[in-house]
Specification:
The chain folds into four domains: 2-50; 64-132, Homeodomain-like (Arc Repressor Mutant, subunit A), CATH 1.10.10; 146-322, 2-Layer Sandwich (Nucleotidyltransferase, domain 5); 344-409, no CATH class. Helix content is 40%, strand content 14%. It has 15 helices and 13 strands. β12 (383-391) and β13 (394-400) form a beta hairpin. The longest helix has 29 residues, at 411-439. GO terms for molecular function: nucleic acid binding. Residues 444-471 are annotated as: Disordered. This is Transposase.
Amino acid sequence: MAKATARWEILRQHVEDGVPLTVLAGEHHIGLTTLQRWHQSFKLHGKPGLEPVAPGKRGRRMPSEFVNLVEGLALAKPPRTTAAIHEQVNKVALHQGWAPVSYSTVSSIVGAIDPGMMTLAQQGTAVYRDKYELVWRRRAERPNAVWQADHTELDILVFDAGHQPVRPWLTTIMDDYSRALCGYMLFTGAPSSLNTALALREAIWPKKTADWPMYGISDVLYVDHGTDFTSHHLAQAARDLHFEIIFSAVARPQGRGKIERFFGTLNTELLARLPGYLHNVRNPKPGLSIGELDMALGEFIGQNYHQREHQEIKETPQKAWQGNGWLPRLPETIDELNLLLLTVAKPRIVHRDGVHFQGLRYISPLLAAYVGESVILRYDPRDVAEIQVFHRGQHICKAVDPAHERATVTFKDIQKARSARKRQLRGQIKERIATVAEFLPAGQPATEVSQPDPAVHRAQKTKLRTYAEDE
């Protein structure tokens, strides 16, 4: 109304005081026709009629068929540039007798198309679903009702058992209701059913620390379609432990968003401040062993992540999991759990001096009654200093290697020792061969067992009748 008031102050001199419009036009440098139009609007509508009227849209009106044509070309596959659409629609306009349009007009029509429609037409239902479809976010009704399991390759370099830089993998088990991490497994190499089983064992069995009270067997395990999750062993463990495996929809990452967000939190809040993080420097150098990273990860989860309020559930994961107190399902013994989850099983014969496995010798007084019997060995690859021995499906004992009874020996340590021994033997072989070449007189080769010519041997062994077509 400010402009209407200003116009009335000028026009009032003509309406109330009788000053001619020609005089007002000269004094205020306003066109006479403009003052006449204001006067006419005042007589028809009063002071509100002096308010400026928004100008109408200029330009010629295009046929609706023309707009549909532009939109159709923009939505069709393969995608066209705006310049190509402009050129093509003007050819059609010339043929139909329509007036040609400018590039900016075509560009404005294309730009006004619904982005969701454009995505669906050009990129398909999968991309449209991930960007525009509504997502129903659910939460389990109680702790241990649903667990989620997933893997990720961590963005950090560490030293493996051979002191070589590697990127470790992490398998985590998350409770859907409380967002608590019930268990995890840190390892090198590709994910496997063994590492998944070890993560489940840690999640199910009670921990020794007060800041990590989560344990028990969940009703449902929610996983993707990885080969370790679809293995027969995991299916058998689910039947024995009485939980259900539910697989997420293929190519639908939204269902695993909760555990994926934890991986993001781990990267930004823990790994980013550790040596060897891949995104801090151009050529990062590892500074931790995998055991030291495992310790740092356990402290972060138990003392930090579990103790702070989660933004979505509005309480700490530990408090949400504990609730008012309840008793989770649990196997009777750790030996029973090991029997169901430890997938590395090797048959062996009990000898008088114990059980031989991976170049080590394991003994236990309880093996005395099974000398000569076939047994099944199950072991944790993280520590092969001891093994679990089973006979006909029953757990017999825990056998230990006397040479490493107080130490932790990993399977990779055994492999490293084997490789070192092979290198040592090859070096000794080369020394012996060099000695023979040094002391044997020239022209007198070392006596060797004559080996038959393989070609002659094959020709003598097989005599087939051939024909002209075979030549």
